[in-house]
Amino acid sequence: MLQSVSPKNDLPLDAEPEAKPHQGLFSPFAITAFRIIWIANLFANLGTWAQSVAAAWVVTEAHASPLLVAMIQVASALPLVLLSILSGVLADNHDRRKIMLAGLCFEMSGAIFLSTIAFLGILDPILLIISILWISIGGAVTIPAWQAAVSEQVPGEMLGNAVLLNSVNYNVARAAGPALGGLMLSAVGPAWVFLFNCLCYLALIWAIWRWRRELPVRTLPPEGLMQGVVAALRFTQYSSVTRLVMLRSFSFGISASAVWALLPLLAHRNPDGDAAVYGYMLGALGAGAIGGSLLVNRGRLLIGTSRLISLAGLTFGLVMLVLGTLDSLWAIFPALLTGGICWIAAVASYNSAVQILVPDWVKARALALYQTAIYGGLALGSYLWGHLAESMGVKGALFSAGVLMIACAFLLYPRRLPELDASSIAHADSPQPGQPGFAFNPDRGSVLVTIEYRIPQERTRDFVRASRPLRRLRLRNGADRWALYRDASEPELWQETMVVENWLQHLRMLDRLTIADKAIIDNLTMLHRGDGPPRVRHGVSYESGSYETLQP
């Protein structure tokens, strides 16, 4: 369950920081690796969107129920909900390039299967949904590694622009891909559209294959899957950024899913609707997103990230009210253009917040949790609106989704994200503890860390206040338990204690420190008054050794 989010959690929320000079939107294209991968990804996205038009139209033409049409969106989103966190653990602990290649190859195998059954003439809605599910499983493996790898392609100061350009890429394909898919669907049929998508995968696999870069040096063994999942959930529990992005993206996705799930039915049942009109509708959403991408940075500077997200949600809700009320294409297409602007303003801001405000050691997992939240909202919403469309009609479901979106925009307006600044999450060096002077298993038995501070009584209030963010820091980075004690006989003596799962996990905690973390620790240490720095002790559980073999 998502916990309530307070702006006082773990990052300072300066409402209106000074605008910092930044490089132009297209500056990442100067990096060869990013440029080649971006172009190849554009072709892959074109193929994916062309395929989505053909898939939705095949199900619609088979006179399937609204629920079965909406199940296409469920099949697309469900693997991202269930598998992304496991993929994120792999991406944070192993070579992201290899994980991306494995995921893309699995996606392509599903696309080949879909093309084959289409050419054999045995394609039906159920097989189509199974094929989409197959392809989406590969996407669930690829996406966390893909998004986290952006920081390996460009320097840190270009990261925000690189994330936005990737969103532009996706939405350029969304604008052109559906129109291309609609034209191909009318001209040559769905089987050739599916084959076109297979060929588009090849370019991206080639671009990732030829990408070479220096792998980060890892001094510690990788985390296990379950251990990595627990670390990600612990980080999320004590990270206001990740929780808030998950909460807001889930609420946005559950409402916005009505457009993606019901748009083929809206086009099919429109008096002037056909396959081409459906493609043009998706193209209008994509064109709006492309235009909106040029305005996102300006919007962030003018009103701030959180206000931009709230404004996008409110306006998208109004768009759905229009779609649920009017039949005229002259009203529907401008509304869809506006909806595309709102979509990229919200989604690019969510993505950038995680990319820029989450440290690298957990970035793929945080992105996976964000993807889980937004695609969970899309999957749940698609089922909900598809079910409601059967009882209250397509327009009634769209109108209801618009009302929900507007309500969420108002309710979540006070929950604000920090403004985007990557400098605080840069890695900070930390002194490593000496190895224990006896034989032990570093992967077994807990570790007790105690740090002694001597605090003058007049600084007690400041010390307690400074310890509050320290608690969140320790628990966020891997401690199982944390406490602060004051000596009963010596009031100036304080002990910070924490229990960590094992020695390796303790070393990982030290390796995860960022500049912002270091500043919190330094603020506490500055209040210490003693002959030397605060004294640190490490106790290793007896379970880490083999004491059973010793003679009494």
Can you describe what's shown?
This protein is mainly alpha-helical and 552 residues long. It is built from 16 helices and four strands. It has helices at 32-61, 66-93, 96-119, 125-148, 150-153, 159-187, 190-210, 225-237, 240-269, 275-303, 305-323, 329-357, 363-411, 460-477, 503-511, 515-525; strands spanning 447-454, 479-486, 493-500, 535-540. It has a four-stranded antiparallel sheet with strand order 2-3-1-4. A hairpin with a 6-residue loop joins strand 2 (479-486) and strand 3. Helix 1 (32-61) packs antiparallel against helix 2 (66-93), helix 6 packs antiparallel against helix 10 (275-303) and helix 10 (275-303) crosses helix 12. It is elongated. The two termini are 50 Å apart. 51% of the residues are buried. Residues 1-22 have low confidence and may be disordered.
Keywords:
552 residues; mainly alpha; 4-stranded antiparallel β-sheet; 16 helices; 4 strands; 5% strand; elongated; transmembrane helix; transmembrane; membrane; TM_effector
Summary of the model, kept short:
The chain is mainly alpha-helical. Helices cover 66% and strands 5% of the residues.
**Outline:** elongated
What value does the Rg take, in angstroms?
26 Å
Q: Please trace the helix and strand order, writing H or E for each element.
A: HHHHHHHHHHHHHEHEEHHE
Decide which structural class fits the backbone.
mainly alpha
How many DSSP H or I helices?
16
Would you report the number of β strands?
A: 4
The main pleated sheet reads as: 4 strands, antiparallel
Oligomer: single chain
Helix content: 55-70%
Strand order of the largest sheet: 2-3-1-4
- Whole-number mean pLDDT: 83
> What percent of residues are in strands?
5-15%
Query: Roughly how many Å apart are the termini?
Result: 50 Å
Organism: Metapseudomonas resinovorans (Pseudomonas resinovorans)
Domain Major facilitator superfamily (MFS) profile: 33-417
Transmembrane segments: 64-87, 189-209, 244-263, 275-296, 308-326, 332-354, 366-386, 392-413
Keywords: Cell membrane, Membrane, Transmembrane, Transmembrane helix, Transport
